[in-house]
Design goal:
alpha/beta, about 35% helix, eight-stranded parallel beta barrel, 15 strands, globular
């Protein structure tokens, strides 16, 4: 009998499994324009309004937003993954959510980022008729610079270092309830809820050898080596485990430089896999997971599209921004026959340190969602948390990738959530983003 992981999550919080129609959600629902209001999400909000709610409230909200307008009294046992074909990643909008930053930061420790992701799911626009929206979570493996530790804003605690064979990050998982629902089951519950929302999911990973460690139960951690077959097998199998937990996309940091390409601009630390080796790795992840529809996204792209296509990628970042609508539309037209791989439109990347105004950001999103002659030919796009829920004025996306500060003014988790994001102007911006998506989701 199939386990209902969402019900198991509710039980872990001693919540009743019977769902209740959520009036709070109904009052804040935005609808798609042009296809009978079938696609719904919550907007005109600031994140704390969702993060302050309970897990039961979040599940009720997700059930209330059901695309087929049927309200289920119990969360379904069978969830269909949104199906856009094997090469869906070529068209998708990728939205990276920094699950560490939105976790429960209390005193000097942080946890439970996956629960915060669940609470924010109602505010993520669902997939469109012609293409998917895919939520990428920034952290899934333990990080090697002090996993789960809250540090001062100027202290480094980079998310760009991972530990394999050590389970899942304490920043992400709620180990307080792990005796009732395991880390793997918490991830499955998140993915089931996202899929119910009509959203695909993925995770960020790194490939720079000195930014990866391998853990062993009976000896010290080892620095990863692409020349060590045992390490390579572990990298593949850890990725396959995640795909089998419901993820369908993998965002690969520094992928442009695989095989020694353009190393003059490489900013990672340590050796990278060889080109043929990466081909093998991505093929093995697809084969061992039994999923032909996985999307592999490479950080950065050049105009040598065949190189990335033959590597096994579906999309690449940092090739063109959304600043010039006509340039993006013409690139979309030029590449319309490339159905497996395309470079993407960037709104903001993980290295962003400030400088984009709200108006410029909205213009870029408009370009990403509408710069094509036919919706079936759109380019993929890449957004960050900041593009949906603007951060406070004195931080930025890259800073939160490099450090894990609490912005709480009174020591409470709620104060961190309230102060992490922009307030009144953030709400207005979120409303404007919703208006753009409302016109795009029925294309």
């Amino acid at each position: 009998m199939k386990t209902n992981y969402v019900n198991k999550l509710l039980e872990a919080f001693s919540e009743d499994k019977k769902l209740i129609y959520d009036e709070w959600t109904k009052e804040r629902t935005y609808y798609s324009i042009g296809c009978y209001n079938s696609k719904k999400w919550v907007a005109d909000i600031i994140p704390i309004e969702l993060l302050n709610r309970s897990i039961k409230d979040a599940v009720n909200s997700i059930a209330t937003l059901n695309e087929n307008n049927i309200f289920y009294d119990l969360f379904p046992d069978e969830i269909s993954v949104p199906d856009y074909g094997d090469n869906w990643g070529r068209l998708a909008n990728y939205i990276e959510l920094n699950n560490r930053a939105i976790g429960e930061l209390l005193h000097d420790r942080s946890c439970c980022g996956i629960l915060s992701c669940i609470k924010l799911l109602p505010a993520i626009p669902p997939s469109a008729k012609s293409w998917a929206n895919c939520l990428i979570i920034s952290q899934i493996f333990p990080n090697i610079f002090g996993d789960s530790y809250v540090k001062l804003p100027h202290e480094e605690n980079s998310i760009y270092g991972i530990k394999l064979n050590a389970g899942y990050s304490s920043n992400v998982i709620s180990y307080k309830i792990a005796d009732k629902i395991s880390p793997e089951e918490q991830i499955r519950a998140f993915n089931d809820l996202a899929h119910f929302r009509g959203i695909k999911t993925g995770f960020r990973t790194v490939i720079s050898a000195d930014q990866i460690k391998v853990a062993y139960p009976d000896k010290s951690d080892e620095v990863f080596s692409w020349q060590n077959p045992e390490h390579v097998e572990m990298y593949i199998n850890e990725s396959v485990k995640l795909m089998n937990l419901g993820f369908e996309a993998m965002f690969i940091d520094s992928a442009k430089h695989i095989g020694g390409y353009d190393m003059g601009n490489y900013t990672g630390v340590g050796a990278l896999p060889e080109y043929a080796q990466m081909q093998y790795i991505l093929n093995e992840i697809r084969a061992r997971s039994g999923k032909s529809s996985l999307s592999f996204v490479g950080e950065k792209s050049s105009d040598d599209f065949e190189r990335y296509l033959n590597m096994g990628l579906n999309a690449g970042t940092d090739f063109i921004t959304g600043d010039d609508f006509n340039a993006v539309r013409e690139l979309s037209e030029k590449l319309k026959y490339n159905r497996v791989y395309a470079p993407g439109v960037e709104i903001e990347n993980d290295n962003y340190e400030g400088g984009i105004t709200y108006e410029q950001r909205l213009h870029r999103i408009n370009t990403a969602l509408f710069a094509f002659y036919r919706a079936s030919d759109k380019l993929p796009s890449f957004m960050q948390t900041n593009d949906i829920f603007p951060l406070r004025y004195d931080t930025n996306t890259h800073h939160l990738m490099m450090s894990n500060p609490s912005y709480s003014q009174d020591g409470s988790i709620e104060s961190h959530w309230a102060n992490l994001f922009a307030a009144d102007d953030g709400r207005e911006y979120n409303r404007k983003v919703a208006e753009l998506f409302a016109h795009a989701l029925c294309l």
